[in-house]
Design a protein that fits this description.
The protein has 234 residues and is mostly helical. 67% of the residues lie in helices and 4% in strands. The chain has a 3-stranded antiparallel sheet with strand order 1-3-2.
Amino acid sequence: MVERPDVVPSKTDQLAVAIRNAILQGELAAGSLYSAQELGQRFGVSRTPVREALLRLADAGLVRIERNRGVRIVTASDADLAEICTVRLLLEPPAARRAAARMSDAERHRLEATLQEMRETTGDVEAFFAADRRFHEVILRGSGNNRLADYVASLRDAISLRGQRTLPVMREAQQIITEHENIARAITARAPYGAARAMRQHLLTTADLLVGKEDSTSYVDWQEWVGGEGTGDD
């Protein structure tokens, strides 16, 4: 569920985004069950576009369709977080490598602009992470793979629904900015493998903080996936 400035969204797209935003903002409660009719009344549309929008949200992992009952707002478990972090680690470093080799000057300027937004919003968690999201999206779309960008956005939505963020409890905004600066520097220098390494290190650091305690099953599974390369053992 990504609002792309280069594409005119359909009514179903707009409704899916509206429902997603209501979920992320807590207006539709995690774990609660809603009928298509109830959601149609809430958003002022018929049940048919609601069903189409809900199918997209189910694909994104934000809701679970329960036959003859409605849809339930899904809450990501620790295991879900470990899986999401693993998939992002598999996808985003190669995307950063490709983006460094092919991004246009306009896209590189856009990347720097999102980084500057992060620097200017360190006191506003929501605005900071919105800029963070845009930073990653510029790179993913700069790789030339819009499906990948949309898929990673859906993974981030699932994490946001859980309310899992590393700021400000686990690390300072400046640390996150520094990690992003390392990525942007490599992309600006057109250094593909440097961009991939910087992205991988950023995702490893983030995942080690999100996945859970070192003695948890999800953390052990995560470490097996990354081959002991997470920052928790360093």
